[in-house]
Amino acid sequence: MTQKDITFVADFLTEHFNEAPELYNRKGKYFNVERVGQYLKDEDDDLVSPPNTEGNQWFHFLNNSTHLKESPLLFPYYPEKSLHFVKRQMEEVIDQCLQKPADVIGKSVHQAFCMSLYKTSQSEDSTPQLFKLPFLWNNKTSNVHYVLFTILESSFSKIHILRRHTDTSRSISNGIVAVEFGNFLNNSIHESSDSRCYSCLDAHFYDDETVTVVLKESVEQEGKERVLAQLPLS
Q1: What's the whole-model pTM score?
Q2: Given 119, 165, 207, 208, which residue has the most CB atoms within 10 angstroms?
Q3: Where does the chain have alpha helices with state H?
Q4: Domains of the chain: total
Q5: In whole angstroms, what is the distance from residue 200 CA to residue 203 CA?
Q6: Which of 181, 212, 177, 211 is nearest to 199 (CA)?
Q7: Residue 149 falls inside a structural domain
Q8: Which strand ranges, in their side-by-side order, compose the sheet holding 226-232?
Q9: 17 and 56 belong to one structural domain
């Protein structure tokens, strides 16, 4: 070790491990612990060496503001406690805040209808992901809710659009339609159906009347075409 190293260690010991007579009546060691580690202990005991808040601009600002000092929105400060204690206190407050909305929302949600989209085998193998690209759109003008999705097992070149009225009391039938792209971009009816087959990469509603889809050529070759298509919902 160099003399500089020894001096550094000596300074550290001098600063943090001096005897502290004011702590003699407390449990534990009679010297200050390292000031960072005390915040990380998972204990409810007070800090051995609490921070000095004198000159802290935030505390000065709070103490001079009547509204902020009494505001229930500010989380209380515990200068004598570790971060673990503060974390537990905050978690309890957050749990209380979320419990009431969870109860109210949970009691208000009910199943409007059930529609079978596909069936999977009952094998012990993990079920593959068949439902892809779910995108929701709410048409506030006509009070209709749409869901865009693809089912991988049925066809890569097909997207499904599910329609549901937002007013569950109205007896309007649910609608589901599948749009298949396939080889719709072929130049002529004589062109091979396998030569220009497209699958859907992504699909979103552009507005209340238009659906935007991103298509790619399914043929395994370099330079695959990408197509951005705007489809009228009608």
Answers
A1: 0.49
A2: 165
A3: 3-16, 37-40, 57-63, 66-69, 83-108
A4: 2
A5: 7
A6: 181
A7: yes
A8: 198-207, 210-217, 226-232
A9: yes
Mean pLDDT score, 43-60: 80
Amino acid at 113: F
- Alpha-carbon distance of 23 to 44, in angstroms, equals 17
Structural domain including 206 reads 135-185+193-232
Cβ 206 vs Cβ 232: under 8 Å: no
Nearest to 216 by CA among 197, 232, 234, 233: 197
Are 213 and 233 contacting, i.e. CB atoms less than 8 angstroms apart? no
What's the Cα-to-Cα distance from 128 to each of 83, 116, 124, 132, rounded to whole Å? 43, 17, 12, 11
* Closest listed residue to residue 49, CA positions, set 10, 18, 75: 18
| Amino acid letter, 112 | A
Q: What is the pLDDT of residues 94-146, one digit of tens each?
A: 998 899 898 998 888 888 778 777 776 666 566 566 677 788 889 888 888 89
Q: Which of 156, 125, 152 has its CA nearest to residue 218?
A: 156
Task: Assess if residue 220 is contained within a domain.
Answer: yes
